[in-house]
């Protein structure tokens, strides 16, 4: 037979890029070519074992190919021998492409008992690719009804798992109607929906199919697999699917990879470990593959419509014909941005949506052409991958933390590129954060948190805020700072989203996202309140650490400018547990930050008040009087501390600094009233000492009381030259020195 004739020609070279490997001899040699002689020498001790495996597999395939009639497994040593050989070789190295035609035919032809058929299907692990012809031939056996429903179900599950390994898919897509027929089988329906989801193109969406899915939904209820297919149909033809479907992406399908996933990973790792060259064979690509075949390479396309030999000469013709004939442009030929612009309406995305993540041209396409079907497919694929590969959710994945970390990094970069978060990532974070230890993939997880889309507070509190708070309070100072940085990024992304969708089209877009401006304001407010709460507690736990305070104030630098900077009608003052530690901080950086923040609060509140008074337009939102009241309390405390030396008398905040003089005298601190002005404040004393050195070089007493009158103004100018811009704008905006003479009197101010 030709199969065995090919296997007798070991000298035939294996063309990795040009075609899938189809002969047993090449499979036996692990895909080695003449240029890898050193690898051959290194692996010489495997030759004898490989030769034996090759012979055993040939004998087994020959046996199964010649089987006539029904054969029982009991007391059949020959069948036992060949079945064990196939299982052993498949689990060790995977099966060569030509083995699938024989084994699929046998498994689905009903010549053996279900036990044998099941074992054969579970052994179908590819060493490189799965020929489309073998799959189409196997599907034809389903029409003969020779195998049981359990075997049919297992075959469909195998087909879903191996979908990315099939070298071509055009003939398989032509069988769409045949697979659709199996939706009537209740047991197979979830898996057939999954397969149809992978095969669906716009031309497959027909009114009669939509009616059939709606009938099934009416009969079975709201099943996630039916919703998935209907959602995909609706993205292709929204005018045909008029029913309302859940907006939030779910885990639509059951996991189909159970019997094969571990074996695929084992085969891949063993083949890569035995021969670096064999890496090239996996999925027919020239790039080394890691365990995650679906996303780690630039663009993993298992097959092209033409051989590589003819590809170059066909490209020029294709570039003209594809456009004029309105055909799809092969995505593997997309190399430049100019090609993207020329064929932007003729691109067809690959079956492996994960390959999009590392292809900037396809990401540009996603940004330009808002094709919901692409996003839906990407969300589904990403959700499945995140769920299955999470190293702390699945125990067996602990060995692959670095690969999972790289994958999360790729997802994060894609979100940054597209400037939007993925709902599948949101769902993954909500499910995995309660199980997360805070260490594994820490940087990647916290950066993904910053891209969580706007959603209801109830969901965020139970799925994000609560598990994050537990980790926050029990982790290190640096973890706390990382969480605050992540939440600042989340707030900024929400605010940027708000600005982008504030145009004339915003009403319809907001409606489509089931959110309103009121809901946006409430969700942003809850995030700010949450950060204020954990920040107050963290400062107590970390003894008002300056490093932590910097990240907290950095968050409030965004909060204080939401009205003018992002046109969001919301301002929330920091809690007293943040404001007063910053005001009394021993670090000039924190004090300067606080001064700048209060300056921006003032600018935003003044602008809001002017808009209210001008009545040029009816405002949907007005800041509450409580916000103005709290700002005035804080500004009184700050001016009392830094300028008028009256904080202990004038601070009226319930948690403020107000104390009786008798109590202050008991502290035995001299001149306690001036303890926190801009000269004697612990954060400013270093500047005051340097100023005295320059003003009175010979005086070593450091008498701070000398800084008064005209020297006070000189001292202010000195502070401004030291980079304290926040202090400068605060004093200039919030302290009005009404006359020239008052410049020499620190107490004469108006707030």
UniProtKB/TrEMBL annotation:
Annotated compartments: Chromosome, Centromere; Nucleus
Biased composition regions of type Basic and acidic residues, renumbered to the chain: 31-49
Cellular component GO terms, alphabetical: inner kinetochore; nucleus
This protein's record includes keyword Ribonucleoprotein: no
Spans annotated as Disordered: 1-55
Keywords of the record: Centromere, Chromosome, Nucleus
Pfam name, any one: CENP-I
Keyword Nucleus (UniProt): yes
Any single GO BP term: CENP-A containing chromatin assembly
Family: Belongs to the CENP-I/CTF3 family.
Name by which UniProt lists this protein: CENPI protein
Name of the gene: Cenpi
